[in-house]
Write a sequence for this structure.
């Protein structure tokens, strides 16, 4: 057993912080929490000395099998090496205080299983395996040179090629992804910044194609997420029944109204285009000019759409699109969420309780409550006073996932 004493907790519910709290962890659960709890003899006890204790963060949009849009590097990297390269990225994400992720494409089930079996360290994972895309769409790995590089330049036998046209092909590839272990089905319903053959505003996949994937996912108790940046593709995805809109760069009033009506989440990934811009400035010889230009073009609309969604009351879950940029910097997203309209407490809830609700894990995760899984982190300061604390992993002093200490700088 582990006891954390003298903590100031932000429990994820939205309540004000409470000081002088102790938490008792037994196996992988929170067994007791309060100002006075009984700590059995022999329990490992860590005095937090008033430091801030929060639920483990949840990032609902990452890509562990990539880091930065460096296709030239991908061309000379064997797929097996790409799997090993994911290991430090997962470790960095955990060290940043993220104890649960939804991988939004590229990561096979074996990586998730390796974490579950304790072979490698990483956050708890839900995976989409690949991205369903139409021919020439955002997830099509065919490049102007005439090469089909697959998703993110990755060709693995357990990451099915997911380019599909027409309802029959979408049905088949959805079933193949479910067979491959997908927890979520991801669809590219618009173009994107990193794809070479389309614009972010272009609509992709028909409503009927999207509906087919939603039906097949639901038949196995799964749901769909949509890479959706342009207005028409966003509306198609919402109408067809997806659970979350990823990016949502060009949201219209009509889309926001329908998201509210259908309880569809927005995962804004505000940091993603900024990462592309930074990388293109550092490596202009690597990032194609068309991609750099698209990243610059979307930033203002992206931030404006996010602000309007907040003001309207759209449900928002934190997601970074890490992999477009570096892994381990996930906490930067909270700073951007606050900069563009949220309160610090709202950004914390978007990264804990509300993210857990999107993933249907809120009965286990997202808040510090007795009986829930013991996922929690300790920060070196109060994020309600300085939300930028999350952006530096060094400020994350303790990480506990499933009742096990994964990072401990308090006793170093």
């Amino acid at each position: 057993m582990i006891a954390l004493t003298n903590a100031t907790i932000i429990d994820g519910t939205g309540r004000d912080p409470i000081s002088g709290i102790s938490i008792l962890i037994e196996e992988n659960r929170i067994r007791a929490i309060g100002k006075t709890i009984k700590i059995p003899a022999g329990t490992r006890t860590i005095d937090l000395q008033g430091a801030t204790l929060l639920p483990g963060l949840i990032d609902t949009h990452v890509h562990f099998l990539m880091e930065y849009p460096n296709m030239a590097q991908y061309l000379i990297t064997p797929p097996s090496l790409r799997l090993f390269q994911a290991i430090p990225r997962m470790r960095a994400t955990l060290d940043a205080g993220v104890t649960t992720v939804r991988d939004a494409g590229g990561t096979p089930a074996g990586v998730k299983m390796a974490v579950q079996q304790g072979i490698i360290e990483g956050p708890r994972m839900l995976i989409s395996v690949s991205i369903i895309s139409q021919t020439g769409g955002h997830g099509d790995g065919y490049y102007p040179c005439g090469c089909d590089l697959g998703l993110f330049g990755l060709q693995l036998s357990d990451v099915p090629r997911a380019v599909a046209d027409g309802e029959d092909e979408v049905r088949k590839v959805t079933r193949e992804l479910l067979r491959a272990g997908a927890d979520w089905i991801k669809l590219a319903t618009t173009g994107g910044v990193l794809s070479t053959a389309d614009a972010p505003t272009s609509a992709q996949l028909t409503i009927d194609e999207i509906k087919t994937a939603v039906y097949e996912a639901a038949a196995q108790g799964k749901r769909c997420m949509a890479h959706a940046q342009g207005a028409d593709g966003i509306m198609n995805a919402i109408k067809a029944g997806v659970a979350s809109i990823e990016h949502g760069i060009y949201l219209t009033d009509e889309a926001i109204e329908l998201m509210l009506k259908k309880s569809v989440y927005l995962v804004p990934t505000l940091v993603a285009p900024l990462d592309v811009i930074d990388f293109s400035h550092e490596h202009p010889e690597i990032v194609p000019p068309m991609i750099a230009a698209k990243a610059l073009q979307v930033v203002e609309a992206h931030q404006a759409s996010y602000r309007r969604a907040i003001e309207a009351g759209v449900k928002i879950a934190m997601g970074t699109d890490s992999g477009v940029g570096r892994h381990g910097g996930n906490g930067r997203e909270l700073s951007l969420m606050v900069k563009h309209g949220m309160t610090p407490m709202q950004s914390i809830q978007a990264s804990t309780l509300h993210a857990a609700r999107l993933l249907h894990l809120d009965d286990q995760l997202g808040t510090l409550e007795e009986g829930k899984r013991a996922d929690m982190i300790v920060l070196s300061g109060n994020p309600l006073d300085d939300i930028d604390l999350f952006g530096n992993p060094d400020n994350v002093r303790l990480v506990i996932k499933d009742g096990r200490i994964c990072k401990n700088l308090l006793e170093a």
User: Anything to note?
Assistant: The domain at 2-56+368-408 is CATH 2.30.40.10 (Urease, subunit C; domain 1). Residues 257 and 263 are 10 Å apart (CA to CA). The mean pLDDT is 95. The radius of gyration is 21 Å.
